[in-house]
Amino acid sequence: MQAIYEPRGAAREYAPLACNLYRGCVHGCRYCYAPATLRMSREEFHAATSARPGILDALEKDARKLAGCSEYVLLCFTSDPYPPPPYDSTTTREALEILATQDLPVEVLTKAGLRAARDFDLLSSMRGAFGTTLLFTSDRDRAQWEPNAAPVEDRIAAIREAHGLGIPTWISVEPIINPRQAVELIETLSEVVDEWRIGKLNHHPLAATIDWATWAPVVLDAAQASGRRCMIKDALAAYLPAERRADAPGKPETARRV
Fold it and tell me: pTM of the full predicted structure?
């Protein structure tokens, strides 16, 4: 069993290495791609979550081989590393301890809000970064699209707390569902965010109703004005005018950082 793997396709734009600690996710996000990736029905995928059998043993084995590597390991793509009660999330802390022991840098990506703060002591003492997915300023919209994930303000509070502890912070604005709210997030939160990672909505009927050619430059303008690092994913960068694509440099298979 391989625990740390190299993501492919669009996922590789986010991270060169990743580890999925759990199977299933109860957040119920309407845009989630994981069920299709794992060949599970949405009902089955969102019904429950549990640590993958043998994942920590496999992670320890892989981490030893990669000890001291400079590439960040992302937790997690196909699950949330901080599932809500009554589900057990202690596997995540054990995974962080394994990665810290082998001096491997880690990026957390979660929608759990302040539930993740219990591990900030570890992230602040290792090569760690804390990220959250944040798509909306309106919690009503969040509840419609991410019904069981942490509220908007809770996620913002987690980012603020991590930033206050000196932990590098990043926000994933992907998939953009309401471009106006995405821009507002960038304009209002950049004081506590070290990096923005931004991508468009795909594989959902709503995506065809958004004027990406109009909004892509607006989003890029907001990201550049923030003064923070920013990665514009290829699918969104494709809608930039040709003369502006140089503003988001990078190879097609890698992240675009500006």
Answer: 0.93
